[in-house]
Amino acid sequence: MEAPRNIRTKAYVVQGKGNPFTLCDVVLDEVQPNEVLVEIWYTGICHTDVVAQHGGMPLGGYPAVLGHEGAGVVRWTGSAMRDKSLKPGDAVLLSFHSCRQCRFCLEGRCGTCPHMTETNFIRSARQGTGAESPISLLDGTKVHGQFFGQSSMSKLAVVTEASVIKVDARPEDLRTLPPLGCGYLTGAGTVFNVIKPQPQDSVAVVGIGAVGIAAMLAAKSLGVRQVIAIDVVEAKLKLASSLGATHIINSAAEPDLHAALQALIPGGPDKIIDTTGVVGVLEASVKALAHGGTLALVGIPSPTATLRINALDLLLSCKRVIGVIEGAADPHILIPKLLKLYRDGKFPVDCLAKVYPAELLSKAIADLQSGLIIKPILSWQDCN
Ligand SMILES: [Zn+2]
Ligand SMILES: [Zn+2]
């Protein structure tokens, strides 16, 4: 059977840097042998989409279709798929693209793949095949596509095989779970793959969004006894407490984070995960860390942010500061693991999500930015 081509669908297009997301008709060209045509049911909205919309990350160009927490159903698989078992009708979660050939990918640390920026932001993952982005406007204008291998702010998407994770679920069960492909994977992966806390460790999480809560829940699942949640929004701290944080710090009320952490944990936390990327917070976190402690940098700092760290202090205190992308995870391994934790009641993320009809993207983003909703998710089902 011939591969589908010239498929017309609806997608959110950002026409230029800083322009709004506009829902319009686009055309998807022929599905390549190592690609999957996915009918998107749900798309999680992540801060990175908004950052890329405004040019805060390197992006191949505009117009662009963003979206990188897709969930849906396979409609077609290419002829050269590595996983021959993937077939139309399968429910899938979509995650970032990784080359799956470099040392890092082969060791299961795909988030650390050195080609991450290039193949998720700069070019479509198709570059190896010589093909351009699969998306065009109706007048033939090329649209930057396969953002994170998927560009899933779209009713249908041509997705690179590496981004497709088959899950044992009905598609409707994935309603609150698209962030398993990015936000939840990032937080949980940072705990499981990078900071690897012991039960006797204290773990502080700065910034209680989707990534921070996932990190907290992952630490709890490992039996970590002291989990400190830090944010400036009281409602988020309440939520963190209800999900098992043993201590909370409202850093709007206690701006000296170093002092607040020292007061709570004499000697300082063993591990800190920062999801904010704010320089002052990062510097306070390095200071507050316990001897031999680790600070994992997960949030996106501004491109000009520079950390002032005293190198001798760092040496003598044996502290580690480490950048972590996508939880240094292999999504094909971590997503099924998180789905199992979720089903076992140890990763209760349903309470973070609110589902909006796809037409209400701007409301969803406003609610994310105001802190009202931790994880907005678009549903494409009634979008025609
Ligand atoms: Zn790689
Ligand atoms: Zn993301």
Description:
The protein has 384 residues and is of the alpha/beta class. The protein has two domains: 7-177 and 349-379, Quinone Oxidoreductase, Chain A, domain 1 (Alpha-Beta Complex); 187-325, Rossmann fold (3-Layer(aba) Sandwich), CATH 3.40.50.720. 26% of the residues lie in helices and 23% in strands. The protein has eleven helices and 17 strands. The chain has helices at residues 47-53, 103-106, 116-122, 183-195, 210-221, 234-242, 257-264, 279-288, 311-317, 331-343, 361-370, and strands at 7-14, 21-28, 35-44, 70-77, 91-94, 135-137, 142-143, 156-160, 164-166, 202-206, 226-231, 247-250, 271-274, 294-297, 320-323, 353-357, 375-379. The strands form three sheets. Strands 3, 4, 5, 8, 9, 16 and 17 form a seven-stranded mixed beta sheet that branches. The protein is globular. The two termini are 27 Å apart. The model has no long low-confidence stretch (mean pLDDT 95). Bound molecules: zinc ion (2 copies). One zinc ion binds at residues 98-99, 101-102, 104-105, 113, 115.
